[in-house]
Amino acid sequence: MIIHGARAVCRWADRRDDPLGAWIRQLEARRGRNRTVVALANKMTRIAWAVIAKGERFDMNKAFAHQR
What we know:
Number of strands: 0
Shape: globular
Number of helices: 4
Number of domains: 1
Order of helices and strands: HHHH
Structural class: mainly alpha
């Protein structure tokens, strides 16, 4: 289910003007569509775990900031 949700988010990435959309577009250009979907599903799962287990607040800018 998480993969299907990530695939749906990736389909709309070109219309998003936020850090998530930029992160998806950059990753897809480098790695391709399927790897991007799996990477997003992994990232969403890790974010959900952190929010639940650690009690952290979700910050889109922190979660999808460009990392070098």
